[in-house]
Input
Amino acid sequence: MPPRLNSWRITLTPHTLNHAHHLAFLVFGKKKAEILHQVFEGPHDPSRYPAQLIDPENGKVFWMIDEAAAKFLSDGNGELYSQTGEAETIIKFGGHHDSRR
Output
């Protein structure tokens, strides 16, 4: 079957992604603000928000988010940080720097 839109793609399942050591999400723009809010602070609904399935067993997830996309997130200081088990999630907004490891 020829590629759609003259492009090729690789699909990685959440199972495969959750075995990675480092993952990165790039989220930009005001059109993503409500979706990002739902991913982090809304009900668990991975059929609508597949990013909710990403929770690496022994890795880090980096979310690189601009201020427009972060508009509805509840942490007002520009950074969110959570750690569950061995997995670590670091979220950075705009030019803010997070030095935690």
User: Anything to note?
Assistant: Residues 4-93 form one domain. The two ends are 45 Å apart (CA to CA). The CA atoms of residues 77 and 93 lie 9 Å apart. Strands lie at 22-27, 60-65, 79-84, 87-93.
